[in-house]
Specification:
Belongs to the sigma-70 factor family. ECF subfamily. The chain is an all-alpha fold and 180 residues long. The protein folds into 2 domains: 3-82, no CATH class; 103-178, Orthogonal Bundle (Arc Repressor Mutant, subunit A), CATH 1.10.10. The chain has 8 helices and no strands.
């Protein structure tokens, strides 16, 4: 290494040492202490390309590079929605799940069994009208035409089905609550 290169290296390294704390302080006001240290480090690495420049220009370049790195990080975090990320190390057991718990699935299955049983206990015509409406999505007038009855009769069958189902499920629910 020649004397000239050594002098440039010493001057550049001295420049970095002298201005590092000021740069970190400048960045900390914009990004927080830990991020500021990382951004300052990355800025100084990028500044190495310009190490032959005079110190006055290096200082301006250093702050411009630091602002660019800060802006790049902000855009990257916004694009990746970094604020929405959840660390798996911190609270793995309490992560929300899209699936129901085992207990919820069992309870749901039990409710379905109760509903099916209650529907099967309805009188035949009442059950037919109820299922055409609830499962097939037929309107009252469509059911009336399909079954050869009046719309008023359909309304009465639906009303009767709902009342009986409510009663049966209420009785079944109360019996289930009384069990230990």
């Amino acid at each position: 290494m020649s004397e000239n290169t050594a002098a440039v290296d010493d001057g550049f390294e001295r420049f970095l040492r002298e201005h590092r704390d000021a740069l970190v302080g400048f960045l900390a006001r914009r990004a927080g202490e830990e991020d500021a240290k990382d951004i300052a480090q990355e800025s100084m690495v990028r500044l190495m390309r310009y190490r032959a420049q005079p110190p006055e220009q290096l200082k301006l370049l250093m702050y411009r590079i630091a602002l660019n790195v800060l802006n790049d990080r902000g855009r990257r975090q916004q694009t990746r929605q970094a604020g929405a990320h959840v660390s798996l190390d911190e609270d793995y057991d309490n992560l929300p799940s899209g699936e129901a718990s085992h207990d919820q699935r069992v309870a749901h299955q039990q409710e379905l069994v109760l509903v099916r049983a209650a529907i099967l206990q309805l009188p035949e015509r009442c059950r037919q009208v109820y299922l055409l409406n609830r499962l097939e999505g037929m309107s009252y007038s469509e059911i009336a035409r399909h079954c050869g009855i009046s719309v008023k009769a359909v309304e009465k069958h639906i009303g009767k089905a709902l009342a009986q189902l409510r009663l049966k499920l209420k009785q079944a629910g109360m019996a289930a609550m009384e069990r230990p």
